[in-house]
Amino acid sequence: MPTIQLLTAATATNSAPSGATAGVETNGLKVGSENVPDEATLLVKSTAGSGVMTVTIRMWGYHATAAVWFPLGVGTDAAKGTINEGSALGETASNTIAHAERFLVPGHFSRLYAEITAIGGTATAISVYVTTEDVAAG
Predict the structure, then answer these.
(1) How far apart are CA 138 and CA 129, in angstroms?
(2) Do the beta carbons of residue 40 and residue 95 sit within 8 Å?
(3) What would the DSSP string read from start to end of 18-32?
(4) Domain-by-domain residue ranges, the chain?
(5) 51 — alpha (psi -120 to 50), left (phi > 0) or beta?
């Protein structure tokens, strides 16, 4: 299944995206010569850490024609695009964060970006992926 990795073991907050080259190209989600699908799954997992681990992630999409980054999703302006209905992700087991969420419209954007707006715990490290169904595999 086509998958792109937006963050690799990130341990701190990062800024909102700027410029046309931030984030990751969505082309990696294509199946063969098909377009990037309009539905995907967002995966968030901890790769290290201890204590009471939490992370808050805001998703962004870059539209090349408009030449602007858009927060992806609903919510108040300051929190628009924050996954998990605007709430921090907590541990799903001791020292583990694992979260999967339906992710719409990646095919409408040329790039995707995951912004960590808050991270807690001891040495918490977070990786973020977007994956789609491999329809060619049938």
Answers:
(1) 22
(2) no
(3) -STTSSEEGGGG--T
(4) 12-125
(5) left
Question: Tokens 């995907």 — which residue?
Answer: 40
Gap between the Cα atoms of 53 and 97, Å rounded: 7
**pTM for this entry:** 0.94
Amino acid present at 93: A
Do 100 and 43 touch, CB atoms closer than 8 A?
yes
Along the 138 residues of the chain, how does pLDDT read in single tens digits? 899 999 999 999 999 999 999 999 999 999 878 899 999 999 999 999 999 999 999 999 999 999 999 999 888 888 999 999 999 999 999 999 999 999 999 999 999 999 999 999 999 999 999 999 866 555
Do the beta carbons of residue 71 and residue 60 sit within 8 Å?
yes
Cβ density class 74-109: b for 16+ within 10 Å, e for less: eeeeeebbbbeeeebbebeeeeebebeeebeebbeb
